[in-house]
Design a protein that fits this description.
It is a single chain. By secondary structure, the protein is of the alpha/beta class. It has 3 domains: 176 residues, TIM Barrel; 106 residues, Conserved carboxylase domain (Cyclin A, domain 1, Orthogonal Bundle); 38 residues, no CATH class. The chain is built from 15 helices and 5 strands. The protein has a 5-stranded parallel beta sheet with strand order 1-2-3-4-5. Helix 1 links the parallel strand 1 and strand 2. The protein is globular and about 75 Å long.
Length: 356
């Protein structure tokens, strides 16, 4: 991995400085992604100023991360032109096909001088994914933007992935609902990954008929929480809270820990203030922090090292444990069983016996 894409769900650049320094120290390409969204506060000046701050921070490239497919073609021309004038860093545009405009947006962005576009191989393209690689390659063939990529080799790659796509459709892993164009994305500003999550959450609750009610609740909850961009993890937080608000029949009757933490300032600064009545209902008079949230967290590496010492075989194991403690521990047990041919889950550790 040579490019490390670093982003913050609130575009609070204070949360990225440590990661950028770490990537630079290891000679990786630190690419800072700005989560693109719409709203009064998200002006052209907002994006340009943030691009300048990213360059000053020491990042090597900038990604415009349009996770909901909200960037329209002519807006892309404006945005890319302004950012190219403001910074000397390469600019990568990442969007999703959810709203149906992504290929046109890429075309205008490339003409405006964007350096990189993110695409997906055709079997897994479109819908909540990206425009198809092969289509963009063909579009720019014979122009000053010709990629030089070989369509025959791309066809081989597509042939490899097509049966995998068909299998995922058959098993239900890939929901056909997420493969089409949903123009309501432009109205609700819901990214592709969030649409998939909402679909599965409501399916689990047997409440798929509430899908559009939840979609209408999303922009309201987003506004209550300071109008953050909807991207991991803010999209999950806003989405889950919207599901609760609809299913409970009363807004904020049940409040997730993550919603409370956003209101406490534990994720960082939002571009707009929170709705005072929502703060009152969810966290009352609890203290709200305004500093960089990580300044209040003690260094955890030594603690984590001690906690998982018995499983450590390489440094990456500590990272796996730090990010996903339960999943990582289960994997470590499985790995040990494969290596020692002793499965601890069936061993009688009390009596030191093992079934043959």
């Amino acid at each position: 991995i040579d490019i490390i894409r670093i982003f913050d769900c609130l575009n609070d650049l204070r949360n990225l400085e440590t990661a950028v320094r770490a990537a630079n120290k290891e000679n990786a390409e630190a690419q800072v992604a700005l989560s693109y969204t719409l709203g009064d506060a998200y002006t052209l000046d907002y994006w340009v100023e943030n691009a300048k701050r990213i360059e000053d921070m020491g990042a090597k490239s900038i990604c415009i991360k349009d996770m909901a497919g909200l960037l329209l073609p002519y807006k892309a021309t404006e945005l890319v032109t302004a950012m190219k004038e403001a910074t000397s860093l390469p600019i990568d545009l990442h969007t999703h096909y959810t709203s149906g405009v992504a290929s046109m947006t890429y075309l205008k962005a490339v003409e405006a001088g964007v350096d990189i576009i993110d695409t997906a191989m055709s079997p897994f393209a479109l819908g909540t994914s990206q425009p198809a690689t092969e289509v963009m390659v063909e579009t720019f063939k014979g122009t000053p933007y010709d990629t030089g990529l070989d369509q025959k080799l791309l066809a081989e790659i597509a042939d490899y992935f097509r049966p995998i796509r068909d299998e995922a459709l058959e098993s239900g892993l890939l929901n056909p609902k997420n493969m089409g164009v949903n123009i309501k994305t432009l109205l609700y500003q819901v990214p592709g990954g969030m649409l998939s999550n909402l679909t599965s959450q409501l399916k689990e609750q047997g409440a798929e008929d509430k899908f559009y009610d939840v979609l209408e609740e999303v922009p309201r909850v987003r506004k209550d929480l300071g109008e953050p961009p909807l991207v991991t993890p803010s999209s999950q937080i806003v989405g889950t809270q919207s599901v609760f608000n609809v299913l409970m029949g009363e807004r904020y009757k049940m409040v997730t820990k993550e919603t409370k933490d956003i209101l406490r300032g534990k994720y960082g600064a939002t571009v707009k203030p929170f709705a005072p009545e929502v703060v009152e209902k969810c966290i009352g008079n609890e203290e709200q922090i305004t500093c960089r949230p990580a300044d209040l967290i003690p260094d955890e590496l030594d603690t984590l090292e001690k906690e998982m010492a018995q499983w450590k075989q390489q440094d990456e194991d500590v990272l796996s444990y730090a990010l996903f403690p339960q999943v990582a521990t289960d994997f470590f047990k499985y790995r040990e069983a494969q290596q020692t041919k002793v499965d601890q889950t069936v061993a009688d550790t009390e009596n030191g016996a093992y079934p043959v």
